[in-house]
């Protein structure tokens, strides 16, 4: 198990790699500014019967 600090560092590294430094910084600022319940969001957005494959296809199409 890795520490909380290691999770934060890896998260920022991934965000920066895929979004760029400016957008990664904006993302972090948005998350800190808005109240956010990850568990509720996940249940609302992912537990609608959509398969993992479909979620992956949607994510990959957004990435392109």
Q: How would you explain this protein's 3D organization?
A:
- By secondary structure, the chain is mostly helical.
- It has one domain (4-63).
- It contains 4 helices and no strands.
- The chain has helices at 4-19, 21-33, 38-46, 52-63.
- The longest helix has 16 residues, at 4-19.
What does the largest sheet look like? none
Strand content: under 5%
Total DSSP helices: 4
Low-confidence stretches: none
SSE pattern, N- to C-terminal? HHHH
Structural class: mainly alpha
From the alpha-carbon coordinates, what is the Rg to the nearest angstrom? 14 Å
Integer count of domains? 1
Strand count: 0
The overall pLDDT, averaged over residues, is: 84
Distance between the termini: 33 Å
Which term fits the overall shape? globular
Into which percent range does the helicity of residues fall? over 70%
Features:
mainly alpha
Strand and helix map with partners:
Elements: H1 4-19, H2 21-33, H3 38-46, H4 52-63
């Amino acid at each position: 198990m890795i520490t909380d600090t290691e999770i934060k560092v890896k998260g920022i590294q991934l965000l920066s790699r895929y979004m760029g430094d400016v957008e990664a910084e904006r993302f972090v600022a948005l998350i800190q500014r808005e109240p956010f319940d990850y568990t509720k969001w996940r249940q609302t957005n992912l537990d609608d019967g959509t398969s993992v494959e479909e979620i992956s296809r949607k994510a990959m199409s957004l990435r392109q």
